Every structure is written in structure tokens, then in C-alpha cells.
Request: fold
Amino acid sequence: MSSSRLEYLLASRGMVRELDGFVVAACFDASGTVASFGMGDGTQHLARVGETDPWVRHVVHEGGLLALAPDVTPGSFISGGDDGFFRRLRANGDIDDIASFGSRWVEHVTSFVDAKSGLLACSERKTVHLFDRDGRKLKSLDHPSTVAGIGFDAKGKRVAAAHYNGATLWFVAAKTDSPRKLEWKGSHTGVVIHPDGTAVVTSMQENALHGWRLTDGQNMRMSGYPAKTAFMSFSRNGKWLATSGADAVVLWPFFGGGPMGKAPTELAGGAGVICTAVACHPLQDVVAAGFADGMVVLIDIGTGRILPGAPPGGGSVSAMAWNSTGAWLAFGTEDGRAALIDLTAREG
Amino acid sequence: MADVSQVPVTVLTGFLGAGKTTLLNRILTEQHGRRYAVVINEFGELGVDNDLVVDADEEVFEMNNGCICCTVRGDLIRILGALFRRRGKFDGIIIETTGLANPAPVAQTFFVDENLRTHAKLDAILTVVDACNLPARLADSPEASAQIAFADIIILNKTDLVTPGQLDAVEARVRGINPLARIIRAERAAVPVPELLDRGAFDLDRILAMDPDFLTHDEHGHSEGVNSVSFEVSRPVDPEKFQAWMGQLLQEKGADLLRTKGILEHPNEDRRFAFQAVHMIADGDYVGKWKEGVPRKSKLVFIGRDLNRPQLRRGFEACQVGA
Reply:
């Protein structure tokens, strides 16, 4: 992909900062108007979309920040760190401890953002801890080995955890905890649940994905990646699972009997650069993808048409997220580039 | 991504009571101008306040890569992956293993995981042994000989608790298992820290300096079951022949081959090719030029169990160009 003559959205409608450190994660708050970039040095940098206000830096963890997610309350974020804290950064800059675990790292956090209920979760070692929207502990869920990824389903009814030899699916509200154990040998490093709740997919150490169709327990094997898959994102209606880890955006079809026995669709390939991050648009069949050279593109899944988002530079793309309306895309890189792209006019 | 600087990683092994924690405390408290992140297993034993001490569970799992003995440490993949995002906070990483651990999964992790390969380099496996208790450990525990076999540097500790004659005998046994490692004698783990860390001991250059005659003696005392053989050939080694031979050898005998290291002369190539393997997992790269005016020789060392010397020699010799 020659970059010289392309007009990148970042130049015409973007905001970029070169921050100090590694962008571990990026996300938008519940209202979709504030972006947070979580950094390897334990800070979060907050940017209000569409405004030229300076970004605000908050020291949230004493060590490194390991995971970041929106809080249920607008303007606020939750994060986990290697200081053992699960914390909330409020819109006014206050920081609360939701929980602390001593020397144990809080490696993963996630939330189910909902106007009425809302849930928070974090994991340390082999345990997932669930909290209500106010940060009151609901329950702790133990696993046979260290939890390497957590995720709620689209309704906040179930939470999945990835670990060695499979994943475990829990009902959040169950009185007696008898989880569904999804078994497959190997180290599972990340997990997503299909938007309609019918499948669970994990990423694996062996440059492959594994899935379980929940209706009949059938296994899905999705392999052939040259690198590890760090990002998995279902398209808005669950038709496609977009993934990183190849020198193209790999999309697995979750329709017509797929992904079993189906070849994936590969988009935005050809440059020989590994795709390191993907995020599907929340409302349209569009996927944003970041590459190891720092390039970011937006792809229309139906037509394969590519819109250049950001030129190469700034290191490998390590963080990527859309806001809830799909009007803004945030991404960050290993060398500290943090950026927002405004797509409002294109959504009309 | 060639400009990513690789963090040196030191793996610290040794039986409980050999002096690992004493050594670790020395490394963390002595003024040597370098900062280390430390991954330990017996949290709390370390009497040092260091915000870069990480408490880990040794979580070993099998890779589904067709390699029957390929076990790796999943906890290290996660922990080091997170540490790499805190660039500039430390100069090196030390991984302490529990006393009974086999070092193979730790070493294999650094070969197998692409993120670790990109950001870290295994600097050395450092094994602390108790000069007084080693004979008993070798007799009752297979891990003791494995820890010695895997080591790049061996600290023969507690030398004040044995007589000079016993010390020499223990050192000879260590040497019999691993002829390649540097052996440092110590009391109370008092070793100059710069001698241990960021030495590039995992680099294979030291093999070149090795005297092959030393290894042509039949090793004594095979009760440990682990010994070593080494070979030298003077004609260039054909890379394809070598790969075919080594690939099959590791596939068939990898479980018994703890470590394999070599420096190879490839035809029409001014650089030395360094080869190494841990069990079945092999890796190789060019490591700088041959010295001018010195005859080039390819050397290969096996450390393992049930080594068939004549067979291995014939195999290596047949890899030479024109053989």
C-alpha cells in the first residue's frame, strides 16, 4: 500500500497526540463522548471528542495499567493494574478503589454498560470478580488456571473466562454457580461471545482460534494465522468475526453453517504487514483495522472498499475502539501514538 | 520491527536451600547501576522492597504444535508481555523457578512465543548448587541433573561447608554433566553480580573457546544419567544436510536431548552460524564473522541422556560438504 498519495482521515478529521509510553488499551466512556487511552506507565489520558481542550493525564496505577474499560456511569472508566488495584477514574478526576488484591495483578477488566443495571468485572489470577454498577461485590468465580480473558455477552446475563484447556461460561444471576465448561486442550488467551449468545470464541497461544457452538456443543477450529490473535470483534449483527493476527483482516463467517468448513474472508491484505488490531463498527458492516507498521484503515465488509485512516508510523497498533454511536474511532500504538478520528459526517 | 531492543532475561534455578534467595537479594540490593524486574515464586521470602517484583504461579502447559515434549510457561508469556509495555523501567528481567522445576519449559517459552522472541533474549540460565548437598540431590532427584545440564553458569555455593577434596569431587561431577557452563565457586552466594547478568552467556560464542579434547574422555560416574558429547569437523557444514539430520534427530531423540548447541561453518559464508536446541525446539542464526587467520571449525555439543557417541559423530560428519 503506497501511502504517499492517499488522503488519510487522520489528517483531515483526526486528533493525534504522541504520548510517553505504550498504549495498552483505548475505549470510550458510556456516553461515547470521552476517550481514554490506558498506558503502560499506569496513566490514563482522557480526550473529549470534537473539542480542542487539552487532553488530561491521570496517574491511576502505581505500576503499569493492564486493562481498561468504560464504567457504567458516563465520563468514568475502570482499570486494572500490576499494583493489584481495580480502580475507577471518575469524570471529575477522582480515583476510587473498587477492589485491591495485594501483589496479584488485575490483568483483565470489563463492563456491561446499561442504562438500568450495568455490571463490572475484573480478574486476578484464577478468579473473576463481579461487581454491580456501584462497585459492590456480587460474587467471585474460580477457574482451574489463570484467567487470560473475560467478556460479557450482549445482554449482561453471562460472563465468559478464557484459561488453560478451555473457557468457562457463567450465569451472572445464578444462585448456585454451576458454569458451563467449554473444553479444548491448550492455552486460551482471549474470549468473545457471539452477539446473539449462541457461540463462544477464544484466541489461543498456537496462532489459532477455537469456538464452541453453544446450541449443540460443536467445536469450531479457525487456524492458519502467522501470528497470535490479539483482537476479536463481531460485526454488529454477528455475521462476521473480525480478527487480527494475519497479514490481512481475517473475517470468519458466522452464517450459512459457518465458520465450520468455510474459508474466511481476507480484507486489506497484500502489503505483507501483520494486522495487530481490529474493531467492528457498532452500527454498520464496517471494520477498523490497525497494522504492525502503525497504519489504520476502515473497511466496508460488504464491498471490501478501503478508506485510509492513518498512515504508517508510531509503532504497531496496540489499541482500538469505536464509541457507541460509531461516530468516533480511537486507536493507540506501542510507541505512544494516540489518536481519534471523527467519522460523524460519513454516518449521515 | 528490527529496532526493538531486547531485554536480557536471566533464569535462576536451584534446589530449595541452595542459596537462590540469598543470591537474588544480593542482586537486588547491591549497587551495580542496573534495575531488574524479578519474577519469583515464593513471594515474601524476598526481604527486599522492589516494585518490580512479580509473584507468579508456575503454569506449565503443552503446546499443540506436534512437539511431544514441548511444554511452556504460560504465566511468563503473560507477565513478560505486560512488563514489556513498561519500557525503560528496568534493564533486565530475572526469573526465579521453584526448586523442583525442570528448566526446559522456561527456556522453551523463549523459543516458542513470538512476542517474547521479539522483546526478550534469554541471557543465561543460572543454576545455584549446594556443594554439600549436591551428591544427595543428584541421587534422589532427576531435576538436579537437569538443572545442571541446562545451566550456562553454575554457582557452586556453600564451598565453606565442604573440604577442598569434596569440593573438587563435586565440581568434577558438575563438569561431567555439563562441560559448557562456567562454574563459579562461592560462599553465601557472594558472587560479583556483573559476572552473572547480561553476559550473553546464552550466546554460543563460548563453545568456540571450548577445548574439544576435554570432552573426548569418557565421562565418569554416569549415575546422573545425564552427560555430554561434543564433536568438531573441519570441512564446512551443508545447511540442508544439517537441518535434515538434526530435524530427524530432535524428532526421535528430543526427549533425551536436554540441550544442543553448535557453531557451524556454512559454505561461502563469512559469518558463524549458531545453532541451539532445547529438547525438540531448535533455533539458529548468524552471530558475527569468523576470525581472520584462524582455521574455521564447526563444533556441536549435546547434553542429554543415552547419547550414542559413534552414531552422533557419524551423523554430524556426514553433514559436511562433499561427505
User: Anything to note?
Assistant: Chain A touches chain B at residues 21-22, 24, 40-41, 62-64, 66, 82, 103-105, 107, 125, 145-146, 148, 164-165, 185-187, 204-206, 227-228, 292, 316, 334 (CB under 8 Å).
